[in-house]
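Sorry to interrupt, but I need a hand with the structure work. Please put the record directly below this note.
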Amino acid sequence: MIGSVFQRAVNSPKKRATLLAGGLVAALALATVGGGIANAAGGLAPPPVRPATVHVASAVPDRVILTPSTTPASTQNVSWRTSLDVVAPQVQLAPVTDGPITATTTTAAVSTTEFATDLGYTIKYHTATLTGLTESTSYVYRVGDGDTWSEWFEFETASAGAEPFSFLVQGDAQNDVKSYASRAFRAAFEARPYAKAVVHLGDLIDTDISDAEWGEWFSAAGYQNAYMNVMATPGNHEYYPGPTLTKYWAAQFEFPKNGPADTPAIEAQFSENTYFTDYQGVRFISLNASQINGADLTAQTSWLDRVLEENPNKWAVVSFHQPVFSVTSGRDNKTIRDAWLPVFEKHNVDLVLQGHDHAYGRGNLFANEQNLPEGANPATSQTGPVYMVTVAGPKMYVPDDPKNNNWINNGANLRSMNRDTQMFQTVDVTADEIHVESRDVTGALFDAFTITKTDDGAKLVTDDAEGRPSGPGSTRPSTGSPELPTPVIPGVKPTEPPVKPTEPPVKPTEPPVKPTEPPVKPTEPPVTPTDPPVTPSTPPVTPTDPPVTPTDPPVTPPTEQPGPLELSATGVAAGGMLSMTGTGFRANEDLEVTLHSDPIILGYPTATADGSFAFTVRIPAGVPAGEHTVIVRGLESGATAEASITVLPLGSPSTGVRDLASTGVTVGTTLAVAGGALFVGLLALAFTRRRRTGATA
């Protein structure tokens, strides 16, 4: 039927011309777009509003953010974004007032970074450092160019010494940040609305150069970023697709430049991503766990040891992305653990905060459950550092078996674990305590513990059965307002009004005296119900039980069944390039590629909508020659595929070379080939028609 219709069209001059024109268009479309149809086949639709329309910059400042300096009691960094129209970026500052601001000081931006975005427009990021501030003082500020301004924001400087405060913790946001991670950001802010800082643990976004994703990250946080100090550590997705750290990092985050500086190259590598700041009795340290090869790891490790050794504060909190002990998908960051775990234990760090695993886990070394103070229970107590992994966004991975996982196999107790749940943490710091609560986005408490430490360094960490309704970050700090005078009422002595108001409550107590008689009888029943509450007091003693139940599902084997892993060669020299393809993974899931037996992470490709992937990576030059195994693991499904590879000595030619392009033709490729063939056929048809026309003319 179709063939006869086509034949009639070819035989008709008018229809033949129409067919030729339409066919050329269709062929060009297939040949040009065919390669992308496979990706679109997963049902992904373009957004209803173009991202460039939503996120385009203007002269109106946006993405305003506070970041800490090395002296947060007297200085404050602030950054923001505009279009190229702004040529005189500046900040106006004033003491907090209860009405319109009438007197301000103006500070010009000290740096401006300009670059083109992936959405087709160019942007500017501006940074100003406010100096000469008074400690523990509230200010209002706005950013602009003298004509166009943001709204007025508020912040309070740190105290010069140790004072109680709260800070928040957010794990990976990464995907669907505005839609989902916003819930975790806002729930944490609701729990401690006057927190002084928030610590982000990497993978803030998914694609390092995506202006829309960075726009969603700022949108999800709202004005929070402009009210409290943001301390962020980079994750592997701040390097994806990379290979260097996203240009947005240094442009929009003004972090201390006090990281490793062994050589100019090391200093440039870790500038503003490995750093520390001291805030009201806590030394916050950020490490870059994505740069851990050779000299990079050595420089960070020695720097970490020195910064902890020189810590003048009572408390130390360290943050980085890839964890020392992994919760999910059989991961093992051995290189990080071997280098940094001894340093954390040596200096008895209080909190080690990590992300990357898209699940929740909290625990400690089994060794730190020994020789506890008298009365402390090893089931609920420990000494030494607390290691925590958490996630804020919607992407979730499969945890390992609770009875056989990366923690237990490396001498650590995974005390609490959760999966498929967006979490946030509130941390309350007081003179002798750090109290930590892990809650889900509904506000429900999942895990809590308290670290107590004396001035001589004696420490005990205790699991808590209940949360605390408030902390230092629950109320607005004093703005130093003067004491209000007592109102003077004509004809009345000033001291009398305060005395008289106490009398009315005394008189009304008389009528209630009579009604007290009936309630006397009902008091007897309440006496008996007091007994049941006594027995329920025992369940809270075992708060570790609830987290145990969510750990059962991970034992279920994955439903995905990946096909054979195809490698571009059977043997590749150390330092050489290796390509691979595979199928059968979960649609659009992140994959992890490792080289075994001593696990070396090679990268994190992403499966397409049909569960296939293609990836090219360089084998590290330091890998010893010999037989190895490449393992690809689905980080959501837990499914794996593997293939053997021989690593050859440096400079050796590859062996068993294969052309992977011919082994895994996708739908898009097929359509592109078909489109090309159709295009060639139609050109031949047109050429034949032209020759015939010329012959009869």
User: Anything to note?
Assistant: Residues 1-44, 494-555, 664-682, 684-697 have pLDDT under 50 and may be disordered. The radius of gyration is 32 Å. The domain at 51-160 is CATH 2.60.40.380 (Immunoglobulin-like). The first helix runs from residue 2 to 11.
